Amino acid sequence: MANPLKKLAGETAIYGLSTILARIINFFFVPIYTRILTTEGYGSYAEIMSYIAVFQVVLVLGLETGCFKFASRGTTSESGADTGEKTDNPHTVFATALSTVTTLAIFFFAGCWLFSGNISSAMGYPGYSTMIVYVGGILALDAITAILFARLRYQQKALKFAVFKSIKIVSELGFNLLLFFVVPKYMASHPGNFLTAFIPEQIHFSYIIFAVFLSCVLCFILFIPDLLKIRFKFDKMLWKRMMIYSIPLMIANLPGIINESADRFLFRFLVDDGITGEGWKADLGVYQAAIKLAVIMNLFIQMFRYAAEPFFFSRYKEKGSNELYAKVMEYFVAFCMLIFLGIVFYMDIIGLILGKDFRSALGTVPVMLIAYMILGMLFNVSMWYKLSGQTKYAIIITLLGLGVTIVGNLIFMPLFSYWASVWVHLASCLAMLLLSAYLGQKYYPIPYKWKSILSYIAVGVALYLIAVGLQFGLEKITGRSATLQDTPMLIAKLTVNTILLGVFLVFLQKKTHILTSLRKR
Q: What are the CA-CA distances from residue 106 to residues 99, 232, 314 (Å)?
């Protein structure tokens, strides 16, 4: 059992290289964006990116996972016996998926291009129709390359996957630096130049959208040699089976995206002056900036997903696979709680990444970290319907999450603004996890050690509350606050938090012995 776990850890690290780079660069831009853009401008950027996030899932149609399922059919079990499933040619599987997604992407981009003016005006951004064209281009190119990246994962070309992803990410960094620090000076000294046909003369949040679009174009160019090697073949019967399997997965993938995005849609309609007193865009801006500080948790979960999905599918016929999945879940939660404490214990330092106008929502970060962890647990638990092919249950789980998200925000967002968003996000993730775990134990039992899993969470949260209580008590006694202006108090606070983090590490090692087991192998 240990060797597969070690292999999964290794693949997670390789796939995570590009993801780490992406998150680091996003982190790098947070202090820039929150010092150059206004809170309202950053809020507008967050709103546009939320639409992109949702449509990215829709346009791929769940075919990333569908390709793994059908390209893996017809394999043999560990003993060498035939599984009895009909064999599907992996090349035909990916060619059919790519043909489907490409056709949909072309129609979508054409619609964005033709109706860009109407769309930008309806969204409250009149005069920025080119930005809508860029959004359409981002979504179309991302959908096509998503299948190509999935093909690299299936072929176990993790290094090529990481290199292509990294090139895309680094190019986005370069384009952003040019647009924010070089182009404005050029445009100021050359009024009416050709660049005004693509971007506004004054620094604007749409610069970020344009940079993403250019990086997507470059990424697509990288895949042209791979595209030329693919014989585009459309298998109608295979397509029907793939769509029946994949569409529910597409719907099932929406909860995580919607839980991160639906509140951004609703700010426009439910928040007036907001907590900041400057309107819904400002509230959305400070909230989204704070969420960026939870990037490490989100990073680990994304790394894990890239490696875990093919890992789970490749072993679901093997003896003892269910026990292996249970062990993976236990280690996953343990490591997530370590990340949680590593962030919240040093929030006084990490929070300085944000511009001073964006720090009012830092209190939401601990709640968002737990919500991200629960979303990762949901991914683990939800493998039961992917492995068993019962993807219809994904719709039921999704509807529950959507219901909690929408109803919760409709009721509480007008009263509590982004505080409602973060707690409703947590409640939605938890509701989906509980339902998926219940259905999984009924239809595809996996022996999760829930007592152990809950112990990691309980101990981690308890240590965090102890730290908060000690800080409150110390400030009450001394009348001083642990801030940069009072360095001795801040050092004392960080010292106590470091000791508490060490306590959790000792608990983690004694409970799992994971470090020892991996080192031995």
A: 11, 16, 33
> Cα(298)–Cα(261) distance, rounded to whole angstroms?
15
Q: Is 227 exposed, middle or buried (0-12, 13-18, 19+ CB in 10 A)?
A: middle
**Could you give the 3-state DSSP secondary structure of residue 406?**
helix
Residue 190 neighbours by CB under 8 Å, 6+ apart? none
Place of tokens 């439910």: 270
With vertex at residue 379, the alpha carbon angle to CA 147 and CA 259, rounded to the nearest 5 degrees, is 90
How far is the first Cα of the chain from the last one, in angstroms, to the nearest whole number? Answer: 11
How many angstroms separate the CA atoms of 163 and 181, rounded?
Answer: 27
Asked if residues 204 and 134 have their Cβ atoms less than 8 Å apart, the reply is no
CA–CA distances in Å: residue 74 to residues 83, 147, 318, 497:
6, 21, 14, 53
Per-residue pLDDT of the chain (521 residues; tens, 9 = 90+): 445 556 655 666 666 666 667 767 777 788 888 888 888 888 889 889 889 988 999 999 988 888 877 876 544 333 333 344 455 677 788 888 899 999 999 999 999 999 999 999 988 888 889 999 999 999 999 999 999 998 888 887 878 888 898 899 889 989 999 998 898 888 888 887 888 888 888 888 889 999 999 999 999 999 999 888 877 777 788 888 888 888 887 887 776 677 678 888 888 888 877 777 678 888 999 998 898 888 778 878 877 876 776 677 766 666 767 888 888 888 899 999 999 999 999 998 888 888 888 888 899 999 999 999 998 999 888 887 877 777 778 878 888 888 999 999 999 999 999 999 999 999 999 999 999 999 988 888 888 889 999 999 999 999 999 999 988 887 778 777 666 666 788 888 899 999 999 999 999 888 766 555 544 44
Residue 166, both tokens: 């990294």
CA distance 158 to 50: 28
- Computed on alpha carbons and rounded to an integer, the radius of gyration of the chain in Å comes to 24
DSSP for 38-83, written as a single string: -HHHHHHHHHHHHHHHHHHHHHHTTHHHHHHHHHTTT-B-TTS-B-
Cβ neighbour number for residue 477 with a 10 Å cutoff: 8
Rounded distance between C-alpha atoms, residue 321 and residue 381, angstroms: 14
Amino acid at 22: A
CA atoms of 207 and 213, how far apart (whole Å): 10
Residue with tokens 């680990």: 300
Cα separation, 464 vs 460, whole angstroms: 6
| Residues pairing with 76 in the sheet | 82
Closest-CA residue to 292 (of 9, 490, 12, 45)? 45
Rounded CA separation 17/168 (Å): 13
